[in-house]
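Following up on my earlier thread - several people asked me to post the actual chain instead of describing it. Fair enough. Here it is, all 220 residues.
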Amino acid sequence: MKTILYITSSVRSFKEEETQHQSITRLLGERFLEQFRLRYHDVEIIHRNLSIDPPSFLTQEFIAAAFEKAELTSEQKAVLKMSDQYIEEIKQANIIVIASPMYNYGMPAVLKAWFDQVIRVNKTFSFDLARGDEPLEPILSGKSLVLLASWGEFNFRKGENKYHLNHLSSHIEQLAPYLGAEQFFEIASEYQEFSDDRHRASKLSALTQVKELANNLASI
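Reply from S.P.:
Thanks for posting it. Predicted structure:
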């Protein structure tokens, strides 16, 4: 059996029967899961819809509990309960699929809050000053991370002229090792704000790429 942790963060919903104001990233995510199930039947999907059930932002109490070296109090355990649950879901997953639009050139606030809850010392990374100037090291490993993105403009992919403005993909790729991801894949639909033939072609291309990637990952 394989387990997919599916993270969605768009404020928009996706419904097959509707055509207006639908989330492209949720569409790409649903198509990925459908195609994966066709090729690999024994799969469990853990879905975290962050726009419906948003993570808490970090607090002083959270930081204190996360770095506590002594036995945790009941209050500290309660503060870390959400984080513990998220991290357990990551541990279970073979593949992590993050469906996220680009908001203001970065990730949605709820997705950043989720990352802040799961990238945690002695849980998903270790910290040792004996390593010198590189004290952080991921704890988890062996996973693949798939980012299914959508943005209103274009040329934000690595190697393109607007990549330096893309704080969505670059940030998530940088954080991927701390989720245990040893492979990072990205598929994006572009030109959404233009609503022209370029957007329609990019969306169709993204859907084709999603099916191909799902087939490839299901066959591993």
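The chain has a mean pLDDT of 95. That should answer part of your original question.
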